[in-house]
Amino acid sequence: MEKKWWHGKIACQIYPKSYYDSNGDGIGDLQGIISKLDYLKALGIDIVWLSPVYRSPFVDQGYDISDYYEIAPEFGTMEDFDTLLAEMKKRGMYLVMDLVVNHCSSEHKWFQEAIRDPEGPYGKYFYFRKGKDGHAPSNYRSYFGGSMWEPVPGREDLYYYHAFAKEQPDLNWYCPELRNKIYEMINWWLEKGVAGFRIDAIINIQKDTTFPDYPADGPDGLCSADTVVSRASGIGEMLEELKVHTFQKYDAFTVGEVFNMKEEELQEFIGEQGHFSTMFDFSQHLLTAGEHGWYEQRPFCFEAWRDALFTAQEKAASVGFLSNIIENHDEPRGVSRFLPAYAQTPAGTKMLGTVNLLLRGIPFIYQGQEIGMKNAKWNSIDEFDDISTKDQYQIAREAGLSDREAMEACNRMSRDNARTPMQWTSGENAGFTKGTAWLKINPDYKEINVEDQENNPDSVLNYYRKLVALRKSDEFKNVFTYGEFIPEYEEMDDILAFYRTDAATSILVVANFGTDAASIELKGNVKRVLMSNQKNETVDYTKNRLNLKSCEAVVLDMEME
Ligand code: TEU
Ligand code: CA
Fold first, then answer.
1. CB of residue 60 inside a 6 A radius of ligand 1
2. Contact, 26 vs 435, CB < 8 A?
3. Which ranges of the chain have pLDDT less than 70?
């Protein structure tokens, strides 16, 4: 395999609005991030992905960009951005921007021009279509609810297309001029020195531009956005052209947010000549998805979760690298989602971190994951900011659920669970802001915060630091980066275990997710205990047996027979 500069790196995701507020307006900002770079460095982070920091009306929290060449004033200035870039370079870190180009904001000047004159030069940048018999051109449901077609104000029977909110009109990737504008913009940022991009909702750029109706899947007579995406084709060519005109020229790191990929396309996406360097593995997140919304989420099942993780690892093994996450800004907190109640403790949190960070692939740590942040408790729909949560609440109510039941679904799944401000201290506003935070702060900051964990050698934070350091150590970086992933003890309930092996080394990672103690037959000799999530790090093993308490995780350097 050809070696790439980003192999073996550790990445993190920052959601700027909720990271650190440097000026007391209640909104995290670039200066705030700059002031925390040493913290990130101490955690061992090499690559930082910033959720969007471009100018935006923030209808979808920055995923609605009104100027691709400007920094949102809420976050600071272009000068602040350049300082951030320079300060990261100084520390040997790489900055990855969020590339949101399936759509822009309805306040972007392209769209403003287009809507003024849909037949004019900017009309081609979007999808304008005539309605059918007084209805929208087709029966597509947008991701955030309602039709994907919005009437053009003042124009009878003309609509524009938006897969997400109506303030996020889709850009027409079949228009060569538009594509060139996008490539130009990407190259402008790469010239500036960003190391690459996380690429938002990219499968959505392919369309069947005849926009046929599909069978309805809900009482609204519409069909889901997933159906719409999966019926379109031709993404491969589009992504190749994108890569050749931009990323490839700069040896950039790219990570795709890819949903609805056809299974046989993995090689094309992340193989050596792939469209992207890597893409996120969402298999564990999609596992419990409900058919009609969050209210139908299926219960979490450990065995199915383990299978999903292992299957993804096996599929990627001979192809390339996936990027591993337990959470991001669209998902609830991993601790609340993947751990049973008895395991939502520091030990359980470390266990989840151990199995996630030592998988084969590029680990992405989402802000706050390294201190074990959890879902918040939301009391009323008014506490939420997220556009998707408001829609999901409505869907649940319309399906006949009570306010309490709908709120339960939102508590479990809301994207705002990951967006509550970072918990820096046990002091006022969790040390996030001196003003009023833009979103509710999780009251558990008194128990879960960076400052306390800095001072506690047994904290989740210090454990994460050790895990990252182990992964990057001279001795083991080869095996953790390029080593094989081999599942083990799959026949045992509640055990999640695998080897990472190369010619010289066999590492065994074992975790007991059950309530009961477990005893495992070892298939080699333990040379050394590399990690343990137990307080005194004493691991109970003999020549051929390993005994694990509930929620115990160990990493063993093995000598195989
Ligand atoms: O997400 C794409 C996407 O498909 C999500 O909308 C997902 O289906 C949803 O979050 C589940 O609740 C990306 C961004 O990550 C997300 O934050 C944006 O809202 C979206 O694109 C639109 O830009
Ligand atoms: Ca601020």
1. yes
2. yes
3. none
